[in-house]
Amino acid sequence: MNRETRTERSRDLRQRQTYAEEKIWQALRGDRLDGLKFRRQHPISRYFADFAGDKALLVIELDGGIHEDDDQASYDLVRQREIEALGWFVLRFLNDEVVKDLPKVLDAVKAQARMADTVTPHPPTRDASGSLPLPMGEG
Description:
It is a single chain. A four-stranded mixed β-sheet has the order 1-2-3-4, sandwiched between helices. It is built from five helices and four strands; from the N terminus they run H-H-E-E-E-H-E-H-H. It has helices at 3-15, 19-28, 70-85, 95-100, 102-118, and strands at 39-44, 47-53, 58-63, 89-94. The chain has one domain (3-118): Endonuclease, Chain A. The mean pLDDT is 81. It is globular and about 40 Å long. By secondary structure, it is α+β, with helices and mostly antiparallel strands.
């Protein structure tokens, strides 16, 4: 996808944001959350992160009801692993969590950002077949 197409896609996604995305964006925009800079619908590789903070290499993904579907959940896992393999850390929240308990969500984001300042991220290494390792408890 070329730069112009990516920009158009990002713009379209921003214009169609959900209520939960709007609510968290109001708390994140303009470096309002502990001075952390986030972007909406930020391209990372072939994906668009709901929110991305470059300095902390932190992605925030908000999941609605569609993410409960098995096919969508599988896609989300592959997508998350690819983004994490690039050195990013992905935090996932349900839309309901953002709407009902935004302070708790923001505390988790701040905590992860603080950790990013103290730890050098290392992407997972691929095994001999080129696959990324399964998360703990899977496989």
